[in-house]
Amino acid sequence: MIISVTEVKQIKAIVAEVKKELTEQGIPFKDDVEQGVMIETPAAVMISDLLAKEVDFFSIGTNDLTQYTLAIDRQNAKLDNIYDSHHEAVIRMIQMVIDNAHKEGIWAGICGELGADTTMTERFVQMGIDELSVSPTFVLPVRKIVREME
């Protein structure tokens, strides 16, 4: 769970080190692999403008982002009545991440249960989301909504 630009820079240094080792050993590798981060914490959302300068994409982990934004344990069934992934704070955070990604010319996707929530598909498209990662059973319903949008 990324919470700082320093972590991203450390990861980039590790990747550079591994590439150097592969090169020295004569092991071929694909050099142009995109590197991105999961946006799962409010901290990552708030510095997403800075993170966007360091990576090729964002994947917004809505399950964890909702849990940490609302300070609610999503695995505690007693709290199910107040765990709300549609909470305006969560939606605003998603919008902030999308906007900051696009300002830096990178793409932003949504993964997690909210990506497959067909009541949100149209809104996500209107917000400018570039990708919705869903399990295979939700591909057709989500695709249908997107294709029927004006």
List the SSEs and their pairings.
Blueprint lengths: L4 H20 L11 E4 L2 H5 L1 H4 L5 E5 H9 L17 H16 L3 E5 L9 H7 L3 E2 L3 H13 L2
Parallel strand pairs: 1-2, 2-3, 3-4
Can you characterise this structure?
The chain is of the alpha/beta class and 150 residues long. The chain contains seven helices and four strands. The protein has helices at 5-24, 42-46, 48-51, 62-70, 88-103, 121-127, 136-148; strands at residues 36-39, 57-61, 107-111, 131-132. Strands 1-2-3-4 form a four-stranded parallel beta sheet. Strand 3 (107-111), helix 6 (121-127) and strand 4 form a beta-alpha-beta unit. The longest helix has 20 residues, at 5-24. The radius of gyration is 17 Å and the shape is globular. The N and C termini lie far apart (36 Å).
Number of helices, where a helix is a run of at least 4 consecutive DSSP H or I residues: 7
Largest sheet: 4 strands, parallel
Shape summary: globular
Summed over residues and divided by their number, the pLDDT gives a mean of 94
Order of helices and strands: HEHHEHHEHEH
Alpha-carbon distance between the termini?
Answer: 36 Å
How do the strands of the widest beta sheet line up side by side? 1-2-3-4
Structural class: alpha/beta
Radius of gyration in whole Å, from Cα?
A: 17 Å
Spans where pLDDT lies below 50 across 5 or more residues? none
Overall helicity: 40-55%
Number of strands: 4
β content, as a range?
A: 5-15%
